[in-house]
Amino acid sequence: MTVAITSDNLGEDIMPDTHRVTIGTDTKLHVAEGQSILDAALRANAWMPHSCTQGTCGTCKLKVLRGEVDHGASPEYTLTTAERADGLALGCMATPRSDLIVETLGVVDDGVPHHPLRDYTATVTELADIAANTRRLVVELDDDLTFNAGQYCELLIPGTTVGRQYSMASPPCDARQLEFHVKLTPGGLATDGWIFSSLKVGDAISLRGPLGQFNLVHEQTEPAILIGGGTGLAPLKSIVRHALEHALVPELFLYHGGRRQEDLYDVEYFTELSQQHNNFHYRPALSEEAWEGATGMVTDVVVADFTSCKGMSAYLCGPPAMVEAAVKSLKRRRMAPRKIFREEFTVAAKPL
Ligand SMILES: Cc1cc2nc3c(=O)[nH]c(=O)nc-3n(C[C@H](O)[C@H](O)[C@H](O)COP(=O)(O)OP(=O)(O)OC[C@H]3O[C@@H](n4cnc5c(N)ncnc54)[C@H](O)[C@@H]3O)c2cc1C
Ligand code: FES
Q1: Considering only Cβ atoms within 10 Å of each terminal Cβ, which end of the chain, N or C, has fewer?
Q2: Which ligand 2 atom is nearest residue 52's CA?
Q3: Can you give the pLDDT at residue 108?
Q4: Start and end of every FAD-binding FR-type domain (predicted)?
Q5: Are residues 178 and 153 in contact, defined by beta-carbon separation less than 8 angstroms?
Q6: Which residues have a Cβ under 8 Å from the Cβ of 247 and sit 6 or more positions away?
């Protein structure tokens, strides 16, 4: 249980099996035994920078000024032994061992609204194969979920306490019905072991959300390039639908990269959308098959299409290698680094 309390009653209202955590100067929380600091903060609608919520990105690093934490399964590659000795911790993995005073290290972006993290139950209403080893999963929630276009939810694998992250492909105006795009990971717990094997329409699933800070920038006055690799298209679909519906971006260029035609999906949907909106351009690209469309690595196709990306911004999503390649390409084309927003589909760290 997490309760956001003010400094006035902190200390008088001591709850069993909780620790008092102070973040910065004015956020004070009760964090339950075994609960991560990030989970408690987001449930209390106290924003903390974060991205993957599984210990792999380091965005949620914080400094423990007083008290002791359990680092849980924080991997060494994200939080080194030296950093631990220096009092650093990952907000998404660390649980308090005592009352704490901490400060966040990442930048808190106040330009977008933040929505409290909550648990939901949902019913699967659609589960369809849409591309090679790729499924569309649509669920109906038991309550409205408020989120920003680009954010994700964590789906709980039945019979475990393990969750996996999947980005909403549906726009925020669909508060009860969420669409996800899921790629099969051979041997993967959530995909091979559940979504591509036993999950079926009518099943009840548990999830928590919204999570992540991959959002459409609030006042986006410049044209945007969106590049998705595989199911990295999911949050971009949400962003495109939201941006077009509310006329939030002057011009949008959506690139979707795959190896072969069988990897592409929603081609008709985006083609029609581009015919309906003069300011929306859609360009799928294939790296291993010649066809009538763009051929080559999606990042090379972008470089060939733009002689300069100065004065533009970008939203990149997909496997880390693709995202890295896209960042390099856009910088080569003179896009300002602070205008490049990214979501990497990192794989969960193996249990210690
Ligand atoms: C912010 C974010 C958003 C995401 N959004 C999406 C999305 O919209 N769509 C999407 O398709 N994916 C998305 N992902 C990726 C997704 O969360 C999962 O990582 C992916 O689906 C694989 O999960 P899994 O449980 O099937 O595989 P895992 O069980 O995590 O396995 C991954 C790999 O590790 C191997 N492995 C696992 N455990 C062990 C072990 N103990 N020893 C040795 N090898 C092991 C597996 O064999 C497999 O090759 C996102 C990830 C992040 C971080
Ligand atoms: S390491 Fe905590 S959010 Fe990524």
Answers
A1: C
A2: 4
A3: 67
A4: 117-217
A5: yes
A6: none
Residues 117 and 47 sit within 8 Å (Cβ to Cβ): no
Ligand 1 neighbours (beta carbon < 6 A): 52, 152, 164-167, 180-183, 185, 187-192, 212, 231, 234, 343, 345-348, 350-351
Pairing of strands 163-167, 224-229: unpaired
Sequential DSSP letters for 55-81: SSS-TTEEEEEES-EE-TT--TTTS-H
CA distance 253 to 72: 41
pLDDT in tens, 85-104: 999 999 999 999 999 999 99
Contact between 315 and 220 (Cβ < 8 Å): no
Q: Which domains does the chain have, with CATH numbers?
A: 3-104 (3.10.20.30), 118-211 (2.40.30.10), 224-344 (3.40.50.80)
Percent of the chain with pLDDT strictly greater than 90:
89
Q: Which of 96, 100, 91, 117 is nearest to 34 (CA)?
A: 96
Ligand in nearest proximity to the CA of 150 = 1
Tokens for 197? 């094997």
For residue 160, CA distances in Å to 139, 156, 181, 292 come to 20, 7, 22, 46
